[in-house]
Amino acid sequence: MANRKTIRKKSPPRPSSIRTHSLTAGDLKILHRVSQDASDRLGWTVSGSAVVRALLRYADLKGEDWTRKQLFPLLEQELVSGTMWGHRRVEKK
User: Fold this and answer.
1) Predicted pLDDT of residue 16
2) What integer pLDDT is reported at residue 13 of this predicted model?
3) Which of 1, 52, 56, 88 is most buried by its number of CB atoms within 10 A?
4) Which domain holds residue 68?
Protein backbone atom coordinates (compact mmCIF):
# COMPACT_ATOMS: atom_id res chain seq x y z
CA MET A 1 0.00 0.00 0.00
CA ALA A 2 1.53 3.30 -1.09
CA ASN A 3 1.69 6.22 1.29
CA ARG A 4 -0.48 9.09 0.18
CA LYS A 5 1.20 12.44 0.11
CA THR A 6 -0.73 15.09 1.99
CA ILE A 7 -1.41 18.14 -0.09
CA ARG A 8 -1.04 21.40 1.74
CA LYS A 9 -3.45 24.13 0.94
CA LYS A 10 -1.52 27.22 -0.11
CA SER A 11 -2.26 30.32 1.88
CA PRO A 12 -3.44 33.26 -0.18
CA PRO A 13 -0.72 35.79 -1.00
CA ARG A 14 -0.51 38.84 1.21
CA PRO A 15 -1.76 41.98 -0.49
CA SER A 16 1.12 44.19 -1.52
CA SER A 17 1.70 47.54 -3.13
CA ILE A 18 4.38 48.19 -5.67
CA ARG A 19 6.50 51.21 -4.72
CA THR A 20 9.41 52.90 -6.41
CA HIS A 21 12.14 54.43 -4.30
CA SER A 22 15.04 56.57 -5.43
CA LEU A 23 18.44 55.47 -4.17
CA THR A 24 21.85 57.00 -4.68
CA ALA A 25 24.59 54.78 -6.09
CA GLY A 26 26.07 54.47 -2.58
CA ASP A 27 22.74 53.48 -1.06
CA LEU A 28 22.24 50.90 -3.79
CA LYS A 29 25.66 49.39 -3.03
CA ILE A 30 24.69 49.13 0.64
CA LEU A 31 21.37 47.49 -0.24
CA HIS A 32 23.09 44.97 -2.53
CA ARG A 33 25.72 44.20 0.13
CA VAL A 34 23.15 43.67 2.89
CA SER A 35 21.02 41.57 0.56
CA GLN A 36 23.99 39.42 -0.48
CA ASP A 37 25.24 39.02 3.10
CA ALA A 38 21.76 37.93 4.20
CA SER A 39 21.51 35.51 1.27
CA ASP A 40 24.90 33.99 2.15
CA ARG A 41 24.00 33.66 5.82
CA LEU A 42 20.44 32.36 5.40
CA GLY A 43 20.88 30.19 2.32
CA TRP A 44 17.93 31.87 0.61
CA THR A 45 17.92 34.57 -2.00
CA VAL A 46 17.13 37.81 -0.15
CA SER A 47 15.79 40.64 -2.30
CA GLY A 48 16.27 44.32 -1.66
CA SER A 49 12.52 44.55 -1.07
CA ALA A 50 12.80 41.94 1.69
CA VAL A 51 15.58 43.97 3.31
CA VAL A 52 13.46 47.15 3.24
CA ARG A 53 10.40 45.33 4.63
CA ALA A 54 12.50 43.80 7.43
CA LEU A 55 13.93 47.21 8.34
CA LEU A 56 10.44 48.73 8.44
CA ARG A 57 9.16 45.92 10.66
CA TYR A 58 12.20 46.29 12.91
CA ALA A 59 11.49 50.00 13.36
CA ASP A 60 7.86 49.18 14.14
CA LEU A 61 8.92 46.51 16.61
CA LYS A 62 11.26 48.91 18.43
CA GLY A 63 8.41 51.37 18.98
CA GLU A 64 7.81 55.09 18.71
CA ASP A 65 10.36 56.14 21.31
CA TRP A 66 13.19 54.29 19.55
CA THR A 67 12.02 55.64 16.20
CA ARG A 68 12.11 59.22 17.47
CA LYS A 69 15.50 58.88 19.17
CA GLN A 70 17.33 56.65 16.70
CA LEU A 71 15.67 56.88 13.30
CA PHE A 72 14.49 60.49 13.13
CA PRO A 73 18.01 61.95 13.53
CA LEU A 74 19.15 59.75 10.62
CA LEU A 75 16.17 60.90 8.56
CA GLU A 76 16.96 64.53 9.34
CA GLN A 77 20.60 63.93 8.37
CA GLU A 78 19.40 62.44 5.09
CA LEU A 79 17.18 65.42 4.37
CA VAL A 80 19.87 68.03 5.05
CA SER A 81 22.49 66.09 3.05
CA GLY A 82 21.19 67.66 -0.15
CA THR A 83 19.44 64.67 -1.68
CA MET A 84 15.97 66.17 -1.62
CA TRP A 85 13.11 64.50 -3.43
CA GLY A 86 10.20 66.11 -1.61
CA HIS A 87 9.45 69.46 -0.02
CA ARG A 88 9.81 70.63 3.54
CA ARG A 89 6.46 70.65 5.28
CA VAL A 90 5.31 74.09 6.39
CA GLU A 91 3.78 73.98 9.85
CA LYS A 92 0.50 75.82 10.29
CA LYS A 93 0.22 78.26 13.17
Assistant:
1) 79
2) 76
3) 52
4) 45-80
